[in-house]
Amino acid sequence: MPTPERSQSPSPSAVPSSNVQAAASTSLANEHLSYPSASAPAAQTPPASTKPRPLLQDRLYVGNLHPSVDEYTLLQVFSKFGKVSKLDFLFHKSGPMKGKPRGYAFVEFASKDDADKALTHANDKLLRGRKLVVTYAHQAPSTKLVQAVNTGE
């Protein structure tokens, strides 16, 4: 018994028209994209590296903290030098160390003189067996250095 011959040409819906699709996607893209007009020059902003960073002389970086040091301990230590206006004590947000202290904090004082006093008196002082690293916040060491110090590498 002879088998019926099948047509070798694919159905019209199986072969998309590339020209139609390309035109549709181009018009769709043009609806969502905007280009600057030739008449108005784009506002040029200098790169971030050329802008001077504001010098925060009332905010201190406190590093090399022992894991048992908490916010209360830091407030006790740094309140001796003046009024602490803000304390940023950082914790790990994820991973196996989630919820544990990062080993550094930022202490902000009400006045620059108090911050200077804390910087000179607290830097290189022992707190629970570790020498504190106290600098102005803009001079904080990189996180790789902080991790190396904290792990003893």
What report would you give on this structure?
- This protein is α+β, with helices and mostly antiparallel strands.
- The chain has a domain at about 60-150: 2-Layer Sandwich (Alpha-Beta Plaits), CATH 3.30.70.330.
- The protein has four helices and six strands.
- The protein has helices spanning about 20-30, 70-80, 110-120, 145-150, and strands spanning about 60-65, 85-90, 100-110, 125, 130, 135.
- The strands form two sheets. It has a four-stranded antiparallel sheet with strand order 2-3-1-6.
- It is globular, with a radius of gyration of 31 Å.
- Uncertain ranges: none
The radius of gyration over CA amounts to 31 Å
Percent of residues in beta strands = 15-25%
CATH architecture of the domain at 59-151: 2-Layer Sandwich
Major beta sheet, strand line-up: 2-3-1-6
As a percent range, the share of helical residues equals 25-40%
CATH class of the domain at 59-151: Alpha Beta
Q: How far apart are the first and last residues' alpha carbons, in Å?
A: 83 Å
Average of per-residue pLDDT values? 76
**Please, how many helices?**
4
How many beta-strand elements? 6
CATH homologous superfamily of the domain at 59-151? Answer: RRM (RNA recognition motif) domain
Task: List SSEs in N-to-C order.
Answer: HEHEEHEEEH
Question: What form results from the Cα inertia axes?
Answer: globular
Largest sheet data: 4 strands, antiparallel
Structural class: alpha+beta
CATH topology of the domain at 59-151: Alpha-Beta Plaits
